[in-house]
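User: Sequence recovery, please. Input:
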């Protein structure tokens, strides 16, 4: 290139690029380290007033061009003049009059006087050699000027003539090599896919996108391809695969068609990556895939009948291609979908033969690891192969306690190679059903058991299957549980290794037939030693609840404590834990810290035993406790998570309690439509066959909603059935002691003093029988003070409740009674109540107080929903605030994910938004500023 051409290039580039380059559509994701180094070079260029050369050599699709765009944007923001020397710009330069070389330098000096300059040249491999020589000369002439030269070259062309020129230039300048760019994974993939789809991707979608090699281009192409083919669904919960959740581990290893659950675009990408390897490496990887996602090199060498040294080359190829990774003494396919896709390339007949070879190899070692061989045997064993079936049975049974997913998958596949209705078929069906019940896949468990029961003539062998069927029906709230339980009792006693049928019957009855279950519990407890600890603990649990319903709190607590002591020896009573009852009782008497500790212990026990079906229980307990403590945000989070878990596990027994929490929260916020809708859903969740445990709470909420919508007379009419029944009145008060005072207050407002007197008598009767419990004493005194209109009688009640909302209602009642006699005192008390309600987020109650204050001539700003600010703590969404508070308490992303029933990737996504909105950089900063 002559001086005229170069002069035109410099002038044209400078004139064109004095304005900052347009920013990219989405933020740069990943590659933090090269950006950090480029920023440092920018500082050094400016501070040292010297030229610097940065060279980026990286593969195609790894994000070189996007990184250069980010560097140009950062430079423009930092006061640099930016020259974009892309090859397209250079090749369009035509011969025309220009300046001589010295004139060009002088002209460039004019721009350098305004500030530093960044010159960017992408795709050096395509640049005209003459242009490169001119650039090289200019870098030398401008060595003492604040110019940062940033050149990028594809790694595939590193040995080309232009690549060699770049290396020679680096030796003559202050230079720094930036590449190659690392493959992306984790948070960077989440962010890229989230940018493209406008929603947070779930773990499966992230794993799929991490399976294409880690280059930004491959990730973008796959995500867009999945969307264009309609393989992704996006809603308010995020982005996920239309086909549903992916299996993993043993459930993935035993599927008949390994690629069946993977989207076709991914299969095509992995097959393309596999085809880029040598034929030898492809063969080795396909055999390795039969061994599993992770495999020992010794196993692979034995399968191939080759010395390990001959595997070095093929495995190195696979590692370099990122199809494999290595660590902990074994190799593993980079991601589970990569393994499945490679395994899918092995023809089925050959795949079966290789599984047989692997199973024979593992069994021949005599190791006590039946599960290792079982995952191969399900693919190759012939029907009736006794040795193979015995291995599969043993493996499934061993996996059941720690990995019910794996046990269910292995047992279900094993059933396919057994004689229908034969002993092995039945045994595997029992294991599969038990595993499905634990997982909360209750419909599958019920269908599996019912499909087998009618066709089998071995009642003794089928007894455990009937027990698990009845358990699944009970957990699903099915009224046919009673019939199945009777069938079990009709078949005789059950071996000690199985769930005792009398325990199951206690559970089935406890949901509705109170008289029958108490009678059975009494018979169990009447003869010491006649029943195992499991059944005795269940009977004690029933007796505790019976004492509670009769208003005998001390007896209830003592009895449930005895059941909990027996629980320490339990190993089978997992679906009727006395800890649940203990937490429930402690919540009602407002020993809330103790109740929360017990609920957490119950949650840990469920997690330890892998009883996913029971996850809604501790969430319902905790949501109720947190609501009573006044933390409606946390209570709402737990209740919402509990409903999601109930839906996921098909276990609706505690859905009414979860719905009740949300109804109360809606009422306190003044969202009457949501409260009414929630009440309707609560009624639907507690049909007649399982309505008894929830009758008191449902009646209470119906009255509260009626009061808010239609006034006190409608509210009293709504709870009329409860008021007419002494037993129901007792339960009504015990469910929430503050409701007794609400009833008296509402009855007086409806001119129904007789109803108010009836409730006062009930509350006082309960308090007299339970003198050591402050909350029932508070309820009785509160009721009496309201009935008598005695302000002095309110003294000390607010401190007895142990419930901040109930305490605020006491203060409000004091203020209301003062309205007609002592305006100043009324205003003072109402202001105190207002402050309490405001702190609790009880907007409806706050609005009521403001109305009373206005009637006294005092103006207070009405509550309103303010627009969310753009920065600071107030800018966080509800979910972001929950994540922020948990992280500030020291929880890890995984722990936060467990708390909120979201994925760790989603937690990471929210954290990045939190850091941006709060202008912070770390968890330490978050803990420091969290309110």
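Assistant: Recovered sequence (931 residues):
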């Amino acid at each position: 290139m002559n001086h005229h051409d170069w002069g035109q290039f410099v002038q044209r580039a400078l004139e064109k690029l004095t304005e900052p380059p347009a920013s990219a559509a989405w933020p740069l994701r990943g590659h933090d380290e090269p950006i950090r180094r480029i920023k440092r070079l920018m500082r050094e260029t400016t501070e040292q007033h010297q030229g610097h050369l940065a060279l980026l050599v990286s593969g195609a699709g790894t994000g070189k061009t996007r990184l250069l765009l980010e560097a140009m944007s950062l430079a423009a923001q930092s006061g640099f003049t930016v020259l974009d020397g892309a090859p397209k710009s250079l090749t369009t330069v035509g011969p025309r009059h220009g300046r001589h070389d010295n004139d060009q330098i002088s002209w460039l000096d004019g721009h350098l006087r305004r500030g530093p300059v960044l010159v960017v040249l992408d795709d050096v491999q395509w640049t005209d050699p003459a242009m490169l020589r001119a650039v090289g000369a200019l870098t030398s002439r401008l060595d003492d000027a604040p110019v940062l030269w940033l050149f990028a070259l594809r790694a595939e062309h590193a040995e080309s003539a232009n690549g060699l020129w770049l290396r020679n230039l680096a030796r003559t300048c202050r230079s720094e090599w930036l590449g190659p760019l690392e493959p992306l994974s984790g948070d960077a993939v989440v962010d890229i896919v989230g940018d493209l789809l406008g929603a947070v991707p779930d773990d499966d979608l992230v794993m799929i996108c991490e399976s294409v090699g880690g280059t930004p281009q491959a990730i973008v192409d796959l995500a867009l391809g999945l969307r264009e083919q309609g393989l992704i669904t996006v809603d308010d919960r995020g982005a996920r695969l239309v086909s549903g959740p992916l299996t993993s581990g043993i459930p993935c290893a035993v599927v008949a068609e390994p690629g069946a659950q993977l989207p076709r675009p991914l299969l095509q990408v992995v097959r393309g990556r596999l085809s880029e390897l040598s034929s030898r490496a492809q063969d080795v990887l396909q055999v390795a895939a039969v061994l599993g996602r992770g495999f020992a090199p010794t196993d692979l060498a034995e399968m191939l009948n080759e010395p390990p040294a001959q595997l070095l080359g093929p495995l190195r190829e696979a590692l370099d291609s990122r199809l494999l990774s290595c660590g902990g003494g074994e190799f593993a396919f980079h991601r589970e979908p990569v393994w499945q896709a490679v395994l899918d390339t092995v023809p089925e007949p050959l795949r079966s033969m290789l599984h047989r070879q692997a199973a024979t190899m593992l069994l021949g070692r005599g190791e006590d690891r039946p599960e290792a061989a079982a995952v191969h045997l399900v693919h190759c064993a012939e029907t009736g192969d006794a040795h193979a079936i015995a291995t599969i049975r043993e493996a499934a049974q061993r996996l059941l306690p720690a990995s019910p997913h794996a046990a269910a998958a292995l047992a279900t596949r094993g059933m396919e190679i057994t004689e229908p209705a034969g002993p092995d078929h039945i045994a595997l069906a029992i294991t599969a059903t038990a595993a499905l019940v634990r997982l909360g896949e209750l419909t599958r468990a019920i269908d599996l058991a019912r499909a087998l029961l009618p066709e089998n003539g071995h009642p003794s062998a089928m007894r455990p299957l009937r027990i698990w069927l009845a358990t699944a029906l009970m957990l699903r709230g099915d009224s046919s549980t009673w019939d199945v339980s009777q069938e079990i009792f009709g078949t005789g006693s059950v071996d000690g290794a199985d769930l005792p049928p009398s325990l199951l019957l206690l559970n089935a009855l406890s949901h509705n037939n109170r008289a029958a279950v108490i009678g059975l519990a009494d018979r169990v407890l009447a003869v010491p030693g006649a029943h195992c600890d499991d059944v005795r603990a269940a009977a004690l649990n029933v007796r505790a609840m019976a004492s509670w319903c009769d208003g005998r709190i001390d007896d209830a607590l003592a009895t449930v404590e005895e059941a909990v002591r027996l629980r320490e020896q339990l190993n089978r009573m997992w679906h009727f834990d006395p800890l649940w009852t203990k937490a429930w009782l402690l919540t009602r008497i407002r020993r809330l810290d103790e109740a929360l500790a017990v609920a957490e212990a119950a949650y840990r026990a469920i997690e330890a035993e892998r009883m996913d079906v029971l996850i809604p229980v501790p969430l319902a307990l905790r949501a109720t406790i947190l609501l009573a403590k006044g933390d409606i945000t946390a209570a709402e989070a737990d209740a919402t998570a509990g409903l999601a878990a109930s839906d996921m596990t098909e276990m609706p027994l505690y859905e009414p309690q979860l719905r009740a929490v949300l109804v109360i929260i809606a009422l306190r916020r003044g969202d009457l439509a949501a409260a009414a809708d929630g009440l309707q859903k609560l009624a639907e969740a507690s049909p007649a066959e399982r309505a008894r445990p929830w009758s008191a709470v449902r009646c209470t909420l119906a009255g509260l909603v009626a009061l808010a919508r239609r006034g006190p007379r409608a509210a009293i009419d709504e709870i009329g059935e409860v008021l007419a029944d002494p037993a129901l009145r007792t339960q009504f008060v015990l469910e929430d002691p503050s409701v007794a005072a609400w009833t008296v207050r509402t009855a007086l407002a409806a001119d129904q003093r007789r109803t108010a007197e009836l409730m006062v008598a009930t509350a006082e009767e309960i308090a007299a029988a339970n003198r050591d419990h402050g909350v029932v004493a508070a309820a009785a005194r509160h009721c009496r003070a309201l009935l008598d209109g005695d302000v002095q009688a309110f003294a000390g009640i607010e401190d007895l409740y142990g419930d901040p909302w109930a305490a605020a209602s006491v203060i409000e009642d004091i203020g209301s009674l003062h309205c007609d006699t002592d305006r100043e005192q009324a205003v003072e008390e109402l202001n105190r109540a207002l402050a309490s309600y405001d702190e609790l987020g009880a907007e409806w109650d706050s609005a009521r107080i403001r109305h009373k204050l206005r009637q006294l001539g005092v103006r207070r700003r009405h509550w309103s929903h303010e627009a969310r600010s753009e920065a600071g703590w107030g800018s966080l969404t509800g979910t972001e605030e929950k994540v922020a508070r948990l992280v500030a308490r020291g929880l890890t992303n995984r722990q936060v994910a467990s708390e909120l029933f979201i994925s760790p990737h989603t937690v990471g996504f929210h954290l990045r938004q939190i850091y941006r909105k709060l202008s912070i950089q770390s968890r330490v900063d978050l803990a420091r500023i969290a309110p």
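Strands lie at 52-58, 81-84, 117-121, 147-154, 175-177, 232-235, 238-241, 294-295, 324-327, 330-333.
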